[in-house]
Amino acid sequence: MRRQLPRSRLDRRCFMKGVLAGGACLCLKGIGAAGPRLQEKSQRRSPDVRYKYRTVSVDHFPELQEFMDKLRRENKLSPHPVFRSYIDPMKFALPKDFPEARSVIIMATFTPAMSARFNLDGRTHDIVIPPQYYDDGVTREDVVRLVRDEVIGEPGARVELAKGIHLKPLAVRSGLGRYGRNNICFVDGFGTYITLIGFLTDHRFQDDHWGEMAMMEACRECSLCYSLCPTGAIRRENFVIDVAKCLTLFSEIEGDYPNWVLPSMHNALLGCMACQARCPENEKIRDSLGRYEEEVTEEETRKILSGQPDNDLLESLGRKLKGFSLASKETFPMFTRNLRPLIRKS
Fold it and tell me: CA gyration radius for the chain?
């Protein structure tokens, strides 16, 4: 049985869920159509955390669920067992303990990729960690308080994290984001450097942002992502990722990589940034790549590559890499496996 990444505080760090779950972009209409102006605010507690959001009535949940059901009926979703374990339990339905929910808030927070510096044999190796795999310090309490105080503005409103729903199609139908040809959600001003979070509330908003699924206008004449995808997971015939070829999937589960995954294909410590890092739309985003302040020492790098972590190493890596998803005793074999080809490559 292949082990998957453990869930984090907000249950939003598995990239496959964000990129692939419910991520088909079929029968597109209104491509590039302009929608209502996005609301954008800065979190009071930290000016570095930026977010945008849209509000949608839960009355649209049946239509969203029918969209997902149609993909299943037409065999558009990969049968890969790990992928299906991610998405099959997900439903557009109100939870039993919150039937009075009236609106869903779909929010994108700007979450840059991070560069970590590993030292070995007198050389430094700068290795990327994508946005979804480190702890940005935002807790459940932080985001719920933000939504209640700044988005709703009604202290008595009930706000709950929307669990078990497909956030990406919701973001696109709301106009918060647009699909790229690589099947990833782009948000104006943030690109793909985002974390999507959903909230249910009993507050009924005046604005119900709802529209057709749309692809970015910039993707009309651009097919760069096809050539950049190292494993050919991005398909030309539709916008559904071929999960069985996706490098991100195999980096998230334990065990050896398939023989067809070459060392040269790896480009991030977890997941894959090949099409995102060089996307012309992402290149416009300022501060999309941060850097950790502390470097991983040569002694620590050797311990990682040997696959023999001790408590001091785990504590140090947790601090230096901001709670990186694989910096735990349980998932450390994947840390070792993923770092080795990147060290050789660089």
Answer: 20
Establish if 155 belongs to a structural domain.
yes
Lowest mean pLDDT among 91-95, 131-135, 259-263, 270-274: 131-135
* CA distances, 186 to each of 19, 172, 190, 270, 278 (Å): 11, 9, 7, 20, 14
Q: Nearest CA to 109 among 46, 60, 182, 56?
A: 46
Query: How many domains are there within the chain?
Result: 1
Q: Tell me the pLDDT tens digit for each residue of 32-72.
A: 222 333 454 433 344 356 899 999 999 999 999 999 999 88
Q: Is there a domain that residue 77 lies in?
A: yes
Q: Is residue 7 part of a domain?
A: no
pLDDT tens for each residue of 146-189: 899 999 998 889 999 999 999 999 999 999 999 999 989 999 99
Q: Please return the burial class of 328, using the count of CB atoms within 10 Å of its CB with bins 0-12, 13-18 and 19+.
A: middle
